[in-house]
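HUMAN: Would you supply a protein with fold tokens?

ASSISTANT:
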Amino acid sequence: MRTSGSIALTLAVLSTLDLPVRHLVAGALAAMVAAFAIREKQRRRQAVTLALGLPVALVSLSLGALLHSRVVAGDLFFLALIFCAVYSRRFGDRGNALGLIGFQTYFMSLFIGATVPALPGLCGVVVIAFLCSALVRFVIVYETPAGILQRLREAFRVRLAQLVEAQLELLDAGPDEVGKALEAVREGTARLHETAMMIQSRLQEGTSDEAVAQLVQRRIADAEIAAERLGLLLLNARSAERASTLTLHLPGATVPASDRLPVRGDTAETLRRDLRALTLLVLRPVGEGGGTALAQIRNRLLGYREEENLPSAPPAVRDVFRGIGETARAVLGLRIALDDPQDESDDTPATARSREELAAENAAIEGAAEAEQEEQAPTGLERPTTRAAVQVSVGSALAIVGGEFLSSHRWYWAVLTCWIVFVNTSSTGEILVKGYRRLLGTVLGVGAGIVLVGLIGAATWPALGLVLVFVFLMFYTASLSHTLMSFFVTAALGLLYSLLHAYSPEVLLLRVEETALGVASGIVAAMLVLPVRTGHRTDELLVTVLERLADATAAAVEQLSGGPQADLLDRARALDKALGDLRGATQPLTHPITPMRTRRSTVQYVMALLETCAYHTRSLAATAELLPAHPSIAGDPRLRRACGRITRNIAAIIARLKDEHATARIERGPSIASLLDTEGLPDAFRYDRVTDRVLRHLQRLDEAVVGLARPLGVPVPDPVPEPASEPTR
């Protein structure tokens, strides 16, 4: 909206000055780059960057006009500008924005054929475009960090409700429908997690102080974990045996022995009613309408946290009711953290106890100290920005040389494509996939452009209006599909060429050829100049994920064992961020066109296991943070021993990834529960209910880590049988 609004306002202002179409196109392109280049979150920093960007744009445009007739000097300057624009990303969002403005403005000068006589008028157009962009950004499409965070909170609420609805469909799905319903639950779980991570990235700027940020972070994590656990409990209720957490994360996995819910009659109907009620409670909390009726729903769902309120049903179904109660508590905590109006007049004793627990937890969070960790940054050619700058410069040089052979007037499209395939990529595989998507979108866009030009012709304002729509769709789809983005770019390009009276089908076909050349140049540069192989990149990120997994798990178990408090949720979110980076880096290996089908399945399996590990670690962290606020829950020092094997196995996998000749091996042994045996204590005092939940998470985590070892080539011994004296749990 901001980008499209900036272009529309710029065109509206320029239309009153009776300028030629070339100047209108220049103004639209300048407004577009002024709008999308700035990514900083604080409005003050945005204003400073926009102010600095204007002289950068004017200098770049002036040099483009001055070097218009000097081919060699212009090409050399363009290469230097490309290197500086990419290298400037090391200086953060502002450096990235200024580099992007410089590159795109110089490209605009090539596209419109800027000359020295036209330079004063074009500079005036650029000034107007930047002023219009500033007006839209800071006045018309008013946006603050707090406002963005508020919209993300609402998005989280909707995603949570959608996930509960998908879980309800899974509950009612028949044997032939369960696969589709399970996939909807997986997708809903992933989207809820994505929204939680987006909120995490905005907390510091969008909240009033650190205590509020930590409180919101904790409540978002609670709601996410409770919703994911509810889905797992529903899977258990549908299965003849306990379902694996892996089922929620592995594409194509099925529910073991899938069948209808193992209960009939009133209990089944009550379960369905309560899941619908939970959705209503998420979307419309008490205080926004509904009054007493919603309070009664809230009280009933929170009552399932008490054993005496659970209906008579098989254990797996009773667990689902408990999960509904815990999710309702998480929703209540989220409302309190977000300062929603709270009416306590209709509270039942169970609801009052939940409020007391949440208040105690809030007080503990507000008093917690923040710990920050800094990572040593790479230097020299090891720095990603330096490597990318060298690679893009070499690729652009190849694109310029090849582009001159294809067209001495429009060679710059090959350079632009080479630039784009390197943006936000870190390995050769990512560049290859992005280049393929770019080329496919361009081919489809050429067809659309030919049709649209035939329908509209050179009618100025209808064409500009349609270009505006395409710009909106281009930016709207940028994060969803690079193919769609390229399609809308190319379709808009056909209309712009028509306005500049430079259109012909041959021009759009040349666009395809230049795009293919740019993709090829980028791939060659990525493979030959300081290459980063996809396997090497994914191994590095995998090591980071495993290190953060071990760190977060060990810290959570240490606190559960009675140790000091730590920033557990921050560590869990650091794990989630590392896992997201790995997920993006593995896209070339899991892409549908990859010929290595076996490797694709292996990568999907490893990613699903890592997602499973992250879920159990988040749950351990959330449970550990209950200890300071609940005097009735005591730490169990024996848990340290139970966690030791897990962290040693993770260390063994890391050692093997760093050195394939490492001799580290995976440890196997009795169940995690058996490691808590204490001689002389009767079975009744072995562990309480909280410890029992921790044990289940540790056991699943232990199994998942052992499962990771096999596809990663770490030797795994045969399982050790359980001691005969160990009771079956």
Remarks:
- The radius of gyration is 29 Å.
- The chain is about 70% helix and 0% strand.
